Amino acid sequence: MNSPLVSTHNSSQSTQQFYSFLQEEYTQVNGKEEREDRSFIMIYSLEPVQEFNKVHWETFRTQYWSTRMSDSEKALRKQLSLIISDLQLILTPEGKIHDLVNLSEIQKKAEQIIIKLSKNYIGNRAEKGFQAYRNFYSNKKHIISSLYSYNHFGLLLSSFYEEVYKTKNANLMDNIIFTIEEQRKINNAKIKISGKLIEQHDLSDLHESAKLSGIKVLKGDIPKLEKYDGIFYLRPDGFIKSSSLSIIFSFGENYKKTIDYTLNAISHEEI
């Protein structure tokens, strides 16, 4: 079966598609609900190059809405998102990222944006945060690995091949990354995805981290992945028509996070 990101013909002609992306996130902490949304438009183009595919992603009209982020924080997020708003990749026939073509441009842009932001956001916490971004974008493997996580990239890199996409990383609690093992059912132009948590964190460490974040956890509380359901619809030419993923995660009665991702193909006239 062909990957959705692999050209189904021998033409060297580039093809292009516009997408709208929406991430809706609800977090309940100690009975209080917080909400955070993110949306943007994306241009996705693919050009067959020998046995590989050259892919170009460009995002614009990024918007944030949050009950806990200040206008200053929203502005900061928007500036940082510009670092990878333009990506040029080489994909293998299986849809795996073979190379990040414009790495040097991304790293140069990251440094320019961080320098600019560091003049407006000062203090020890801000300095540590900017250094973490510098460290991240200096490592090519870290950047590529992050593209497999579920956001607009993961909804396009839609997991046809289990050896490439068997696990995903998800930030389900502050400063904690959980790994999820996925299972897939492929039926013609539709892919259904489910998942389960991989035990990787010591429970006592999770309890300590939760308490530091102000979450009232009880001794018997354990992390639970209550829901992890995704579905991808493909067009006859192999492009994604639409895709979505819903996640519900809880850690006892006082912490619950719900995340809904949706990606829809749109026409140029709809922008």
Task: Please explain how this structure is put together.
The chain has 271 residues and is α+β, with helices and mostly antiparallel strands. The chain is globular. It is built from six helices and eleven strands. Helix 2 (103-118) packs antiparallel against helix 3 (124-137). It has one domain (15-270): Roll (Lipovitellin-phosvitin complex, beta-sheet shell regions). The protein has helices at 71-81, 103-118, 124-137, 140-146, 162-165, 203-212; strands at 15-29, 32-49, 52-66, 86-91, 97-100, 167-173, 176-187, 190-197, 223-234, 240-251, 255-266. Helices cover 23% and strands 45% of the residues. An eleven-stranded antiparallel β-sheet has the order 5-4-3-2-1-11-10-9-8-7-6.
Strand content: 35-45%
Strand order of the largest sheet: 5-4-3-2-1-11-10-9-8-7-6
Radius of gyration: 19 Å
Secondary-structure element series: EEEHEEHHHHEEEHEEE
Unreliable spans are 1-10, 159-164
Shape: globular
Count the DSSP helices.
6
What CATH first level would be assigned?
Mainly Beta
- How far is the N terminus from the C terminus? 32 Å
Q: Average pLDDT value?
A: 85
Q: From the 3D structure, determine the CATH topology.
A: Lipovitellin-phosvitin complex, beta-sheet shell regions
| Proper CATH architecture | Roll
Report the major sheet: 11 strands, antiparallel
User: So what's the oligomer here?
Assistant: single chain
What is the structural class? Answer: alpha+beta
- Structure summary, number of beta strands: 11
How many separate structural domains? 1
Q: Provide the helix percentage.
A: 10-25%
